[in-house]
Amino acid sequence: MSCIETIQSYALRSLGFGERLLPRSDFTLCEQFTLIGSGMIWNVYFGVCALLTGFFFATALALAKASPRRVVRKPAEWFIFIFRGSPLFIQFFFAYFLFLSLKGVSPLFTHFTAAWLGALIVLFLNTAAYSAEIFYGALQSIPKGDTEAADAYGMSGWPRFRRIIWPTMLRLAWPAYTNEAIFLFHATTLVFFSGFPAWQQRGDALYYASYFADKTFNPFVPYPILAGYFILLTLVIIGLFGAVNQRLNRHLPSNTRPRLKFRMNLIR
Amino acid sequence: MFSYCTDPSTLGGLTWLSCFLTTGVHLSFYMSFLKVLGLLAITAPVAMAFGFLGAMSARAGFAPLSWLGKGYIAVVRGVPDIAFFLFFVIALDQLFEYVRHRALCPEWEQPVRQGNDFIVCQAAKLPLGNSAAWVHETYSFGLAVITFAIVFGAFAANVLFGAMRAVPRAQLETGEAYGMSQRQTFWRILVPQMWVYALPGLSNLWMVLIKATPLLFLLGIEDIVYWARELGGTKTPQFTDYPHGDWRMWYFLALLIFYLLMTKVSETLLARLMGRLTRGQATAGGEAQRKAA
């Protein structure tokens, strides 16, 4: 099979299109690149969806945590503590078995045991908690002068939040939030190792990489390929978030703009 | 465990639960918590040692040594974490077996990698094929410890490297003015002062290390995740005196609470340690303590 044919039959394998059987012997480099790349679709899907939805929830959580009212503050504090204080890996397991039990109660939960929804919910809650802590820190360090200026203009409530507090919060939080986004994409590799079944062997990049490593008993090819894909993905994220960072800071003179400082990943 | 546990089917409520939670397999489950704590207790100092060596060599005057230290930090931190764990366990195992293979079986002529197999002679197998089960377990646990130490050592090296540079230059110059040698300034001035700068990073790292322990499961260790899956699964009366439905959810809830407690306790202890280390330091925190006293 030539490399073009391999790409044709395996490029969308992780979504269930193309060849049904995974290669079983005589693994070529092309097959490994194609399948692991195909798995990246899932990593991107989980990361993008969780980030987009988690962003709004995180903003709400951060505001709740900064609220002077106890009834609002305490639940937000507990939520953030629970999701930041326990391993994501255990959260995945717990959520999967929780959904499995709920499935027995009501047919409403049928889809929750599948990775595309169940794992996404866990990632959404998890990234919301981590981002909320970042946003909360940024809220605390908004310069007093900014809010005083808003008061002086007679702004209050929604316009004050929308035009002064929120943009400043984002501006201050953005470098840390970029790192959070990178961690989140790396954390998506845990999904198929934590209970959620890879139905019909439709898995993510790490799932296929470990498949090849198990079959060939040679970790030196698939894992570097995986690392390469992730470095590419990380560069794309940095590019996109850097562009947003520039837009958020466009009113500042160019030499005082905070630069994105890139810290590498840690397990969560 | 208890005397009234001889016939569990007649029991109910709390007595049943007390018998259920003290069966032999449950004791193994509790032992696996010790395994996690043991991993933390061993890995933390080893990773710190790796980190200290890495940081020392990264700031060494001799260029190749400095590149080695900086390269170690950069490479480990640049690769996605879980992939690193999965990679290192196989890679280390093969490395050890290959080294032993070259040393013990010099007459072996076939290549080690044949197609999809990695073949070494019988004497070089690790652990040896005829060794007891506990040797196998200890070996895989040891591999896990080394993997954790390598990965977290690089993170620690990065933190310590930053902390060493954060100590005010004037402090080192004072040491030199007193006629101390480079080695003396390093050990007597730099090292005692760097901890207060390193502690925020190190405590963060400790939290991350706690949360990384369930990855032991991926490395093939019978850890708490393994036992929670085993014990929680549906049990029928044919195989056990304590039949129950699918309780895995509750077992993982227990694990979740265990980790939350660990986090809470560490947070409290580390805050106390930070207060202790800040005392008398030329930092904002130290100044605040002085004013409050």
Give a structural overview.
Chain A contains nine helices and no strands. With 268 residues, chain A is mostly helical. Chain A has one domain: MetI-like (MetI-like fold, Orthogonal Bundle). Chain B contains ten helices and two strands. In chain B, strands 1-2 form a two-stranded antiparallel ribbon. In chain B, helix 6 (169-177) packs antiparallel against helix 7 (182-212). The A-B interface holds A 25, 27, 81-82, 85-91, 93-94, 97-98, 100-101, 186, 189-190, 193, 206, 209-210, 213, 215-220, 223, 226-227, 230-231, 264-268 and B 77-83, 86-87, 90-91, 94, 113, 116-118, 155, 205, 208, 210-215, 217-218, 225, 228-229, 232, 246, 248-249, 252-253, 255-256, 259-260, 263-264.
Q: Tags for this entry?
A:
A: about 270 residues, mainly alpha, MetI-like fold, about 0% strand, B: about 290 residues, two-stranded antiparallel ribbon, 10 helices
CATH architecture of chain A: Orthogonal Bundle
Number of strands of chain B: 2
Q: How are the strands of the biggest sheet of chain B laid out side by side?
A: 1-2
Assembly of the depicted chains: heterodimer
- The N- to C-terminal Cα distance of chain B equals 54 Å
**Superfamily (CATH H level) name of chain B:** MetI-like
CATH topology of chain B: MetI-like fold
Helix share bin of chain A: 55-70%
Kindly estimate the percentage of residues of chain B that lie in beta strands according to DSSP.
under 5%
